[in-house]
């Protein structure tokens, strides 16, 4: 993967690239939006904990596909309030880590999800060459 962050553009607001080029022949995985719900159906009240659960679920989906978070080239996230941004960003930055190639990223504030308790939803796209 190749990060695309042209110098003619303003630098990204956070730990992401403006675009990502995927090499020809790569396998692509796209996850569904993951919500902050545990396997026992409990939903923590904190946005950061919900985001951590989202990223843990994504990591497991990637594992099943033979990939890791390093294979993620795009993150799309949805939060229900600007107040949840710091918690989401802390979980996101922990997921992204100190990677050599940063993913592209989209973050949208939405009016809500199927259940009022949900504050965060995250989906990713990942690629790997065989």
UniProtKB/TrEMBL annotation:
<dbReference type="InterPro" id="IPR035959">
    <property type="entry name" value="RutC-like_sf"/>
</dbReference>
<dbReference type="Pfam" id="PF01042">
    <property type="entry name" value="Ribonuc_L-PSP"/>
</dbReference>
<protein>
    <submittedName>
        <fullName>RidA family protein</fullName>
    </submittedName>
</protein>
<dbReference type="InterPro" id="IPR006175">
    <property type="entry name" value="YjgF/YER057c/UK114"/>
</dbReference>
